[in-house]
Amino acid sequence: MVLSVSVVLCAYNRKKDVAECLEGILSQNYPNFDVWVIDDASADGTYEYLKSRFSHHKNFHVIRNDTEMGNTRSRNLIMRKSKGEIIVSTDDDCIIHREDWIANLVKVFEESPQIGLVTGKVLPIFYDKVPKWLEPPIYPILAIRTENQRTEALNPYGCNMAVRRSVMEKINFLNEDITRKSGGLYSGEDTDLGLRVRAAGYRVVYTPDAVVKHKMFKERISKEHFIRRALYFGMSEEVYAGSNLWKLLDGAANIIIFLFKFIVRPKFSTLTLIAYKTGFMVKALGGNEEAIERWRKAFMRLAAKTK
Predict the structure, then answer these.
(1) In the prediction, which pLDDT does 307 show?
(2) What is the CATH number assigned to the segment(s) 5-219?
């Protein structure tokens, strides 16, 4: 029996990019899938553009939020509206080149009912020269995943992820306390999802056979963006993982270790890891976005001296 699949994505002010993504999705060779898009109150005519361009596909559905709800709430809404036994997720800045993307995700689920979530490879598409400071330790900032071996040790990325509907219903979908809206950079709802899927007794599997390409726009390849994202990554981790004395001590110890490495060799990737742990500590100790902004400025002064 062929498992039914619903591919879902949230679009926000990227109508040409999401259209390119949809071209790849609608060209999949999987025999039983539909596509659900939610436009999160875009101001560029995304909803009208997608409806006029893709509504002739019987398996295509698009809805629109009247006001911006944020990435996570929008994803939950469209996931609940969809019907597939497997919910596949990607982003509006991704490209699916291979026609077997869905098939390669689904075949992993067919191995065992205990596999609750499958995630795949995410290759970058750079639009500018790649800086020397962009190294594997900080690839998660851009949701880059290049591992070639199958494993159950990695966290999922929402831009290339599939989950059993029964599992999503059991754990109550994505954590809406972690969401991105225009101007905000909270993230990690996918990492949190992977943790909760495992806690519910299911396996999380990474397969290098399911591939998407992720657009790396010029504005993302800057030290400013990396520092800000790292600080918010840390804050987001405190939201979904919580904090206690042990975690505070562990965070402080990591900052000391990374700081020592940075003093010996002032690499930007090391500074980014310090920013990540600092974001966690700030949130755990009751800090807010204003505190993060002050730390961002401090880190940027140090970043100017790094390679």
Answers:
(1) 76
(2) 3.90.550.10
